[in-house]
Amino acid sequence: MARGNQREKAREKNLKKQSKQTKKKEDGTAFKKRAESDAEIMRQKQQKALEKKSTDTVQVDNK
């Protein structure tokens, strides 16, 4: 049990370090805004994929 003191010192140091760090807390509006923008980006990607798929299908039909 020679390392017990070392562990305690490391814990104290870590607690002190964590207390100095400021955590960013997202409020509800920022989270919703980011979620909406992410959803819009995904909708645009899906639309592009559907358009590409339909043009690929048309090209295959024409050959």
Automatic annotation (TrEMBL):
Residues 1-36 form the Small EDRK-rich factor-like N-terminal domain. Residues 1-63 are annotated as: Disordered. Belongs to the SERF family. InterPro entries: SERF-like_N, SERF1/2-like. The lineage of its organism: Eukaryota, Fungi, Fungi incertae sedis, Mucoromycota, Glomeromycotina. Residues 1-15, 24-55 have a biased composition (Basic and acidic residues). It comes from the Eukaryota. This is 7035_t:CDS:1.
